[in-house]
Amino acid sequence: MSGRGKANKSGARALGAGRGVSYSTSPLLASKTPPWRSRFLVALVGLAFLGLLARAVYVQVLNTDFFQKQGEARYAHTLELPASRGRINDRSGQTLAASVAVPSIWAIPKEVDADADKRQALAKALGLSNKELEAKLNPDTRFVWLKRLADDDTAAKVKALGLKGVFQDREYRRKYPEGEAAAHVVGFTNVEDRGQEGIELAFQKELQGRDGSRSVVRDRLGRVVEDIGDIVPAANGQDIDLSVDSKVQFFAYQRIRDAVAENKARAGSVVVLDAQSGEVLALANFPSYDPGNRQNLSGEQLRNRALTDVFEPGSTMKPFIAGLAMETGRATPDTPVDTGNGKYAFQGAVISDTHAHGVIPVRDVIKFSSNIGATKLAMQMQPREMHEMFTAIGLGQRPQISFPGAVSGKLRPWKTWRPIEQATMSYGYGLSASLFQLARAYTVFARDGEIIPVSMLRQPHDQPVAGIRVFSPKVTQELRLMLQAAAGPGGTAPEAQVPGYSVGGKSGTAYKQEGRGYAAHKYRSWFVGITPISKPRIVVAVMVDEPTAGAHYGGQVAGPVFSQVAAQTLRLLGVQPDLDVKSQIFANKGAVATEESF
Predict the structure, then answer these.
(1) By 3-state DSSP, what share of the chain in percent is helix, strand and coil, each rounded to 5?
(2) From 91, 297, 342, 358, which residue has the greatest number of CB atoms within 10 Å?
(3) DSSP SS3 for 269
(4) What is its main location (predicted)?
């Protein structure tokens, strides 16, 4: 056979052998796999399942609250249901402060999809610059207030733009119907609706109420899809009923505002008390402010001067010195006091009266406002007696009243008094008090010798409140007659007279302290009085700070304000006149005795 034939046969056999190959006899496939490799693969699969199981336990058992909150954060939201702040009312139910629902505008910056023109329109509607708006719409911020407590016009303009990612909610804003007249009484709240001044601050806890909540599901556009869980209703704040009469308050504010303007003064205050119940009927100051619009406010406007400003009370202390002298049996209304020629050398100092009165009875010491007469009465007493009396009428103590900012004034311990200091205290120098303290002190004369507690809240009954006795009724009746003479013809404040009503009171004028001494031409003028004398119903205290129009005596500057405020208040309270107007004697300006408080 040829070589070519042998080759064909060999190829055929090889092909036949290929079709019948046994793989188990292959040297490569016949090699055994090491046992550790299969175990290792099974272990890897088992560890993977254990890892998944551990993760499931961690997510669904151990830390389920966290992951549930994270999930809910993507769709569930809790909406705050704000409580309406309680109202502040006057004694007759007239609203002095109330909450009104107004729109607040907010946004989710990363969802705000608006072109440059619409963003500019949004900025204009909000009253912002383009730069301010872009700063608020920082995409890294999840939530931003664009304008809180906006007006309805602003809200309507924003809504008309139809911008995606910009939303509106309702919040409460305080309204103050009496404006400037009652600002220092009611105070105001901040943007978070928390009290900052006045009654709003003093009764923050009662007024604020408790917010509620509502859990909802929102879609990606911020729209509420459904409620989930229970709704917790809001508990509205408690209403506060004040003792203040809004009509008396408004009139008192007008009169002190006009007096400050007429006398070219720096400021002024008025306090009106009900002498039977101790209720504060009015507390007004000028300058004032609008509590609903507090832009560019100054400290001068915010100061509640009737409670925060203290001054040396001057001649208003003389009736108390006369009362103590009579109460202790050292004097009677007719006891003569030698005031000499109007100059009295004492302890190296000279105490002066503006006129030489000679020998006068105690009643005329008050009528003519003699510094020398007050000094001679005071120096018969022990310092401790005077200090106890001053303490009894509330000097040197913070008034116990539900109101922020009230101060105590200054009354040094009696053991530190030098004789000259005891003398000057008798006519109101060397100690200090607020106008509010003086008004309360004069309830002693209105209540037959008792000083009564005062309140800014409406009292439940019209019955007279119990007081603390300072003088006996007999002594107090004598003092009322002296105060009536001081406010009558020949006294220091005839301009305080009220047509149809008997009036008693004491004026005061003092140099203002400046540095360690006194300013040469800066005065504080005031008048504190009661009316009617026959059966006192109200106490009115008036103070005018730095009058510069010419007149500066308390009787001339503060007396007319007392007259106007007292007349209006008595009419509003329905108090019947106790004098015949036709026969009433009106003092003329030529019969005025100048005050001697310097």
Answers:
(1) 40, 20, 40
(2) 91
(3) strand
(4) membrane
